[in-house]
Design brief:
By secondary structure, the chain is α+β, with helices and mostly antiparallel strands. The protein has twelve helices and 24 strands. The protein binds flavin-adenine dinucleotide.
Length: 464
């Protein structure tokens, strides 16, 4: 009889001791690791890619909003502080951020946009991880857990040294897909199938082109290209410009683009002269990117797609004749795979009602769905809502925190929480809480909220 498994022989593997283990050095995971280390914990962070930063660096995402929705720039409230804000300030100092650019015309009703240079981000986040004393293992896959009852006792990792076990007191799943939760048997809900109903689909691949004449692009493509905004950033030589391109109004002229399976609308940002730093057509492969086979197929299909898209832009869009593909994100951008069930699911109704909670770990005030088609996603005055601590606690597990896009099973709510600052806020909340639990020797649900709140305030998290 054929059997589709084998039983591996038992073997001894080395143990690495820690207070807090974090899977995934991405948008949320880096912040979580830094927060836990600054709180005094010994932190081990495992990342499968060679560079920390996750979707922000390896996925090449640029823009984000740290402010409450629907307010004019002059009166806008900043809702995100702490380590994410410090990171932006350090990006600015390193010449890798645009500052908070007023965008009163923004269709999401976000008063400011901050655009980061993903290459500088790689250096700044590495500096912050090293300064905090986080033990970082890059090119290291988290691949399983050992459990006793409802507690995780070890995280299994693999890298060039072979297989090791990290025995920590607390675990933070910032893998985007909820990999720790999956191996720990926590319930997960697929979100990816419905994602094309709310945006360009569950995946996307951002890229950039150098050698672009942006002025000609606008002047000579009256039916296709518009400049949405331009702002001097205060950094010499850095001007943030936002463009939109559509082939829909003149499909004959833009036939090379129209023939491709892309969205009608392409969002483009330029932060360095002569280049279109970020080109985001959004439309990605529809797949469950938490599966190895689907992820591999989607990665390759998207490489082919953007190669064709870049050469189609060059072929038919004046201003792009001398342009070339200068970079593409090193890993597929993933908006959603599955969300992990936590003690509390934040719902769209709560977000729209600007709901506040008694156990908040942070605030957030941006919604990616608030456009004409989704008026129900506007966040009521004052334009922000709270993240309750309970939304980070993996259901049924005593020492597992979730942070990032693997949180929130409500599809529309996910279109708010999954954005960069939202993931970073969850990361800091999870990091501080995990460190405190490790120090006190308590389970995640036993942590007294006043102690957590005090520690968050001491790390400059905005809670009011
Ligand atoms: C095309 C696209 C455009 C977007 N545009 C914007 C935008 O303009 N503004 C905005 O605010 N947001 C945007 N987003 C959303 C935002 O970038 C992401 O939702 C957010 O960065 C996710 O953060 P995260 O920490 O949950 O995951 P990630 O940043 O993806 O981090 C997860 C990390 O875990 C690692 N990992 C995964 N599994 C393992 C494992 N088993 N072992 C070890 N490591 C592992 C990954 O390599 C990765 O580094 C966009 C997303 C996409 C895809």
């Amino acid at each position: 009889m054929n059997q589709n498994y084998i039983i591996e022989p038992e073997k001894k593997i080395p143990v690495i001791e820690a207070d807090v283990f974090v899977a995934g050095a991405g948008t949320a995971g880096c912040i979580a690791a830094i927060a836990a280390a600054r709180q005094g914990a010994r932190v081990v962070l495992a990342e499968k890619m060679p560079v920390p930063g996750g979707t922000y660096t390896n996925g090449g995402i640029g823009a984000n909003s740290f402010y409450a929705m629907s307010t004019a720039p002059a009166t806008a409230k900043r809702t995100v502080g702490g380590i994410p804000y410090e990171l932006n300030q350090r990006l600015l100092e390193a010449g890798g951020g645009t500052g908070y650019i007023p965008t009163p015309e923004d269709h999401h009703h976000s008063p400011f946009r901050f655009v980061a240079d993903h290459e500088v981000y790689k250096g700044v986040i590495s500096e912050m991880l090293m300064e905090a004393g986080v033990t970082v293992y890059l090119q290291t896959m988290f691949c399983g857990v050992l459990m006793e009852g409802d507690s995780i006792t070890a995280a299994l990792i693999e890298n060039k040294d072979g297989r090791s076990a990290v025995t920590a007191r607390q675990y933070i799943d910032a893998s985007g897909d909820g990999d720790i939760a999956k191996f720990a048997g926590v319930e997960q809900v697929p979100l990816w199938q419905d994602y094309h109903k709310v945006c360009g689909g569950p995946t996307g691949l951002v890229f950039g082109m150098a050698g672009v004449d942006t002025e000609r692009m606008v002047a000579e493509n009256p039916m296709g290209a518009v400049k949405l905004s331009e702002a001097k950033t205060g950094i010499p030589g850095v001007t943030a410009e936002q463009y939109a391109f559509t082939h829909a109004k003149d499909p004959e002229r833009y036939k090379a683009v129209a023939d491709l399976d892309m969205r009608l609308f392409t969002s483009m940002s330029s932060i360095h002269k002569g280049e279109m730093t970020y080109i985001n057509n959004s439309k990605g492969v529809d797949c469950d990117a938490s599966r190895a086979d689907e992820l591999s197929r989607a990665e390759m299909e998207m490489r082919i797609k953007i190669m064709k898209f870049a050469s189609a832009l060059k072929e038919c869009v004046p201003g792009f004749e001398d342009a070339y593909l200068s970079w593409a994100s090193t890993q597929l951008g993933i908006r959603a795979t599955k969300a992990t069930v936590c003690d509390k699911t934040l719902t769209q109704e709560e977000i729209s009602a600007a709901t506040r909670f008694e156990d908040e770990i942070g605030l957030y005030g941006f919604h990616d769905l608030f456009q004409k088609a989704h008026p129900e996603c506007e966040i009521a005055a004052p334009g922000f809502y709270g993240f309750p601590y309970r939304m980070l606690l993996a259901k049924g597990c005593a020492n597992l925190f979730m942070a990032g896009r693997c949180v929130t099973t409500d599809l529309k709510a996910h279109m708010s929480t999954r954005n960069v600052p939202g993931c970073q806020v969850m990361g800091q909340g999870a990091g501080v809480a995990a460190a405190l639990c490790a120090q006190k020797g308590c389970a995640s649900r036993e942590l007294p909220y006043p102690e957590l709140r005090q520690a968050l305030l001491e790390q400059d998290v905005i809670l009011d």
